Amino acid sequence: MNDSEDVEQEARRRRATAWYAAERALWHSPAEASVGERLTELRELLDVAHRFSDPYELVDTYGGGPVAAVEERVAELLGFPAAVYFPTGTMAQQVALRCWAGRTGSDVVALHPLAHPEVHEDGALGAVSGLRTVHPTTEPRLPTAEEVRDHPEPFGTLMLELPLRDAGFVLPAWDELVDTVDAARERDAVVHFDGARLWECGPHFGDRDLREIAGLADSVYVSFYKSLGGMSGAALAGPEDVMAEARVWRHRYGGLLFQQYPAALTALRGLQEELPRLPSYVAHARTVAEALREAFAEAGVPWFRVHPETPHTHQFQVWLPYDPEVLTAAAVRLAEETGTVLFRRWFPGPAGGPPGVAATEVTVSAPGLEWTAEDVREAVREFLARVD
Q1: What DSSP string runs through 154-171?
Q2: Torsions phi, psi for 339 (to 5 deg)
Q3: Among the four residues 117, 262, 299, 354, which has the most C-beta atoms within 10 Å?
Q4: Distances in Å between the alpha carbon of 276 and those of 18, 43, 323?
Q5: How far apart are CA 144 and CA 153, in angstroms?
Q6: Is the confidence at residue 2, as pLDDT, over 90?
Q7: What is d(CA 219, CA 192) in angstroms, rounded to the nearest whole number?
Q8: Structural domains of the chain, with CATH
Q9: Which residues of 339-368 are buried (b: 16+ CB within 10 A; e: fewer)?
Q10: Is the pTM of this model over 0.85?
């Protein structure tokens, strides 16, 4: 390990220690826990096992048991005939898009350049699955019906990430989403939803339930750890025949694990306990966002942005005109000196945005419900006092 790696490792350890030890936070990352705490949580999952299956039944072996219970629950929630459990969302989506490519006869997938496969998967769609991507739009939002309808190149599948995380967890209006899906159908394309965070989209779509939202698509992928607090894992839901093929490809991709009951039980717990709470997180995220804007304005920050202005989900971005390392250092000091975590890491601002801007992501979950607007404003004042 070289000197720069040593420095980064020490910085990472300091950040993790500060955030783990803090008494107050808007949210807790699943990674912010000790091994002992995680093992204690696993012991508590016995209650989950009692609720969803016979606790004396044999554990899952290449499926079955809690894994099968997750699949049944996801299919029911999303209104699809079947669902398949996957160890990762990256694998689930590759399999889905590969299955649809075989059915449509097209290896071309239309998606946003900020979508997860394009930004966070090291080119896996092309390198592993032999698929090619095109982009109906490069704007920091989901494509419109017109952009899908008028795209000059044929494609077999339209993939929509709901919400589009790297653009600021943004969603279209409901009517816009319906029109975009209809435009894909006009081109005889199938529609796949990257619904890693689909669970919290209902409030933005007029409190529509998951079945109505997922019902627009031919298949949907969902994650169990991004919003539901699970250990890991994902599911792909869709028609019976497509899911039967997905099981074959899951095995070929190395995703048919011998046993996955700990992760499956945390997924069941998340669906039972965390899913009903998400609308309250979305509502309070709007309170937090407004308080952040008020605090930055009161402090005379020369330029800032809370994006979206009204959060579409319980997650959003904050942009400030400072170096990312300066803001991250201030966030760490705030946690160390006051026991409060307002922000975590900051990164260079989004491509195409103003120069000299840093951005961070804010999540509001159960711990954040205890924060009043004044709590947020006070935390901003303390944070800005530590920005050198």
Answers
A1: --SEEEEESSBGGGTSB-
A2: 75, 20
A3: 117
A4: 30, 23, 38
A5: 16
A6: no
A7: 5
A8: 3-40+277-384 (3.90.1150.10), 79-257 (3.40.640.10)
A9: ebbbbbbbeebbeeeeeebbbbbbbbbbbb
A10: yes
